[in-house]
Task: structure prediction
Amino acid sequence: MSETRRHRPATLLVRGGLNRTPFGETAEALFLTSGFVYDSAEQAEATFRNEIARYQYSRFGNPTLTMLEERLAALEGAEACRLTATGMAAVHAALLSHLKVGDRLVASRALFGSCHWIVSTLLPRYGIESVFVDGADLAQWEAALSRPATMVLLESPSNPMLELVDVGAVCRLAKRAGAMVVVDNVFATPLLQRPLEQGADVVVYSCTKHMDGQGRVLGGAVLGTRKWVDEVLQPFIRNTGPAMSPFNAWVILKGLETLKLRVDQMCRNAAAIADFLAERPEVARVLYPFRADHPQHALALRQMGAGGTLVTFDIHGGKGACFAFMNALRLVDVSNNLGDSKSLATHPATTTHMRIGAEERARLGITDGTVRLSVGLEDVADLIEDLAQALEAIPAGAARAAE
Result:
């Protein structure tokens, strides 16, 4: 373990992976270049033969990306990291670099809409068997993993219903089945949950969310062992090209410097808002992992450091009442992004999870009255005032329709 990796998270977020040029710059250098030149033809040949370690082309290696990869690896406690253009490219690369025809994947049903599509639609096209289970039900995991599997995919907490998976228990079942476990940790961030310490093999992130956290750039990350990253993931990324731009990597590097400050405050705001919403007559249900009424509250306390930055709730009256509420918001923006400094609200049934279909949404507990709120950095009193006036703007008949 390097000296840097012994530091605590707040220090790693500022100092991890820092590699200054001879100019001695304070901020990380931005290497906005597509390629690199060689001293000779012989050096180029040796580079492509992997006889010497040297940057060749920014599609599969760049000094700015290396700094971000090393910072994220140190923060996560992983041996290695590779970056991708988006979070979905990270999920896709983690799965397709490893799986092949005849393999079997077991996944939690509660996945982001595009992840659900990869598992339900894309993988079967390549002769890969996909099996869905209810993530909170260990008996279903045990049954699905009672015979050999190649890979397990889960997210915890899930998008958008904040369902938790017992990561440690599923990892133990997966190991017996011979499966590699991939955890999408985007809702928890590496500050609130450490899947590798609980037995996971690979962790994926959308860096677009909390890591940038200010609505500026897209990016993704895949973290795992050095051997798997170098021998399995890197050839896939090198030859298929889902590369992160050096500029995006630089922006995310700067975003990481304030990640802990932002996530800590956003979690405090989210907890206060969840308590406020739970007392409102217009609200039928509130889901927040650190509230005592969350179905998996004990598990949340055991495997997470805080309740997270997302609050999900159901409004009486369905879609009409939800739309009236969202259209009345003055401070909170209507957007399908999350993990931003600005508070954002979305209606999953008509946005992020529209394409999985009504039947699957019902299985996941997503109703026409469900709202996902990504809580930002505004003064929590201002946020509560905005939510209150928007709830009061719901027509009385719509709010009572489901009572």
